[in-house]
Design goal:
The structure is a homodimer. By secondary structure, chain A is α+β, with helices and mostly antiparallel strands. Chain A has two domains: 12-135, Jelly Rolls; 155-231, Arc Repressor Mutant, subunit A. The first copy, chain A, is built from eight helices and eleven strands. Chain A has helices at residues 12-15, 27-34, 117-126, 128-154, 157-173, 184-191, 195-207, 223-231, and strands at 38-42, 47-49, 57-63, 66-71, 77-83, 88-89, 103-106, 110-116, 177-179, 211-214, 217-220. Chain A has a four-stranded antiparallel beta sheet with strand order 1-8-3-6. A four-stranded antiparallel beta sheet of chain A has the order 2-7-4-5. A three-stranded antiparallel beta sheet of chain A has the order 9-11-10. In chain A, β4 (66-71) and β5 (77-83) form a beta hairpin. In chain A, α2 packs antiparallel against α3 (117-126) and α5 packs across α6 (184-191). Chain A starts with 11 loop residues before the first helix and ends with a helix. Chains A and B meet through α3 and α4 of A and α3 and α4 of B. Chain A binds a DNA duplex through α7.
Chain lengths: 233, 233
Amino acid sequence: MLKRRTDTCISCETCNERSPLFSLLSSEELRIMNTNRFEVVFNTGENIVKQGTSSTHMIMITNGMAKMYLEGFDKKNLMLEIITPWKLFGGPGLFTDYRYHYSVSAITETSACFISIDNVRKVLRLNPDFAEALLKHCSQNGVSNFQRLISLTQKQMHGRLADVLLYLSEKIYHSEHFNLNITRQEIGEMSNMTKESATRILKEFELAGIIKLDTKEINLLDVPKLKQLSLHG
Amino acid sequence: MLKRRTDTCISCETCNERSPLFSLLSSEELRIMNTNRFEVVFNTGENIVKQGTSSTHMIMITNGMAKMYLEGFDKKNLMLEIITPWKLFGGPGLFTDYRYHYSVSAITETSACFISIDNVRKVLRLNPDFAEALLKHCSQNGVSNFQRLISLTQKQMHGRLADVLLYLSEKIYHSEHFNLNITRQEIGEMSNMTKESATRILKEFELAGIIKLDTKEINLLDVPKLKQLSLHG
DNA sequence: TATTATGAATGATATAAAACAATAATATCT
DNA sequence: AGATATTATTGTTTTATATCATTCATAATA
């Protein structure tokens, strides 16, 4: 579905303040980035990128919410992140094998802005600050992946679920009280457990007074306890 | 222990052909890289980098073998790679928080060459090809981490051990017949299982005629079968 | 409003893999 | 070479977690 142009998104110049990476660029460089740029609105559930297809664009969501996930064996997904506006993605394939290495799909109706990777490459060769910032961006993803590896391989379910709740609260909903717009299945995909286990442990947390739970509505009552659970194995 | 200078390693100019990243550099850029560069020999078991300390250097092994691993909870390690000569490392911290995010220790006596990160940064700003190559290097690590995440979270022990055997054969020993210089404990750290499980499954593979096993000596008899095991969950 | 889908909750059972324990085989040191 | 430490093997038990099965609740649709 095509999006009507609005005065908030006519060109990169007008929305560059939204992403730290773009604020490093000159007008001329922004003009390059803006060339062939397009924006598309996705309905809930639709794929924004599909793992395995050609990676031709660096993408940024300007509105809505999406999930980034690895497609594993037997339709089992591992969710990497929930993506909110101004977070840049496109992944490691952009500079290696020109394939997307994960899928991204819309959790709510989502507008996404597509910037051609050729233009990104042009600018990165013109602007060393931008090149360094991209390298930093890539490195930060590397650090996150290390944390994920340790969390998923060395913590058991309670710790992993605590990690998810803290992530949702701190990084996504910016509140200790939030209304989930993801399913138990998806909570399981974030913490590598079945939906049944996710349900069960949420209930346990409620019984232990750590959270207040009303299906989709979650209230973190004891954040220190969650942090302690997160630290245990 | 300091290493005597030899005619094979007086400066980066003389060993630049060893690493694809260095072949992109001009003499002047190599001279910058070579400034304050030093080489140290580590004994078996010694730390080359220690997770959590300041990351000040990009490092390359010129001789020997080392292991790169994440230190997790309760002294439980997760080995990321075995490092052999000319593989560059230093990790995601070099461009983010200036901390090493993993440890590297010598499996055999190992010589390592330390290049100041300030010099790397200087050169990356001078040479867009090098900048792009570093970004590619970082991205490739990202791809490997995705594969690792899926392998460790979605495969069970037989599949994970098959992955390790194939990795050792293809990437490290370059033969289907090799003499391990790592312990069962370390095989466990590569595949996220206990040393007892590693022993047991190696034995099972032997009984199934997939490998020939004599403690440290391993012979892959049925590589297709290992690949098939690797694909299953 | 009745009727399907879809998601959530809960219980019973099965199983992969860790933890524990003990012995056997190597390697290292004196 | 003998003594000690490290590593490998093997068996038994325990536990975390998946799987299966069913009911309940909520949302979408006719």
